[in-house]
From TrEMBL:
InterPro entries: BABR_hydratase, CruF, CruF-like. This is Bisanhydrobacterioruberin hydratase. It comes from the Archaea. Pfam families: Caroten_synth (PF04240). Keywords: Membrane, Transmembrane, Transmembrane helix. PANTHER family: SLL0814 PROTEIN. The chain crosses the membrane at residues 21-43, 49-68, 75-100, 120-140, 152-176, 191-209, 229-256.
Length: 277
């Protein structure tokens, strides 16, 4: 089996299981997170790191299948550089408090590199940046031709996404900020740090990929942003359960953005089940 056949097979699997991947998996994940948090599950199952990694990989599969045809040598180098940067900035953050503020992991999210940061960190981090970039290409329309607009919009969406993710993750006990924070236990320094790390991450994506090719791929690949659908469902539901009203409102805005570009219609499941255009 060559690369094209492998890519086609993965796309077929994702396409035939869109509703399960984009809706069922995050809903089941949210239920398991709640059950683990409330101690309704046995200790070995509650917030099991390997189960978290597995579920995350499944929800990432639409993004992977969508991007694979666009990964050439230049994009591959950019992704490797982004992975190295991801580990480096996270290790720096855990050990020195820079640039996010003093924090530590309370749950080992899979095997830990040097006992400090999760080895699967790119699986968690890459989609925040890549989905933001893809979403901005659709939302910007004709203005996507401006590198400045792409860069600023992608960076803004990265930070917006973390405004939804971090409060729920802190409440679940994934990680904690040593001094707490005014925003649901998250300090302002975390978001200032995300500006710094996001500039580098978005810059690498911009340098590594041809935005026109990605835009064309989005037009032909109806499931490419399903990972964002999963994110909205999972972390929107978790924040709703914990009563985090501002993150819920932001998740609703992300929902509206996905609806605007015809990528998300939860009421009838149309955006995660329709045929390719």
């Amino acid at each position: 089996m060559d690369r094209r056949e492998a890519e086609a097979n993965l796309s077929m699997i994702v396409r035939e299981n869109r509703f399960t991947i984009a809706v069922v998996f995050p809903l089941v994940g949210a239920l398991l997170f709640v059950a683990g948090h409330e101690a309704w599950l046995p200790a070995w199952l509650a917030q099991n790191p390997l189960l978290i990694v597995f579920g995350t990989l499944v929800m990432r599969s639409p993004l992977v299948a969508g991007l694979l045809p666009e990964i050439d040598r230049r994009a591959g180098i950019a992704l490797v550089a982004l992975a190295v940067y991801t580990y480096a900035i996270e290790f720096l953050g855990v050990t020195t408090g820079l640039p996010y503020g003093e924090f530590h992991y309370q749950l080992e999210l899979g095997p830990m590199l040097f006992g400090t940061v999760p080895m699967g960190l790119p699986v968690f981090f890459f989609p925040l940046v890549l989905n933001s970039y893809l979403l901005c290409l659709l939302l910007l329309g004709s203005r996507a031709s401006s590198r400045f607009a792409r860069f600023v919009s992608s960076l803004a969406i990265v930070i917006v996404i973390d405004l939804v993710l971090d409060p729920a993750a802190v409440t679940l006990g994934f990680w904690a900020y040593d001094g707490g924070g005014a925003y649901y236990g998250v300090p302002v320094s975390n978001y200032l740090g995300w500006v710094v790390s996001g500039i580098v991450a978005v810059g690498l994506v911009e340098l590594g990929f041809d935005w026109r090719a990605l835009r064309a791929r989005l037009d032909g690949c109806e499931f490419m942003l399903d990972d964002m659908v999963s994110f909205v469902i999972l972390w929107g539901a978790m924040n709703a359960y914990f009563g985090n009203s501002v993150p819920v409102a932001i998740a609703v805005l992300l929902f509206a953005g996905l609806r605007r570009i015809d990528r998300f219609d939860f009421a009838v499941g149309r955006s995660v089940r329709k045929a390719p255009r």
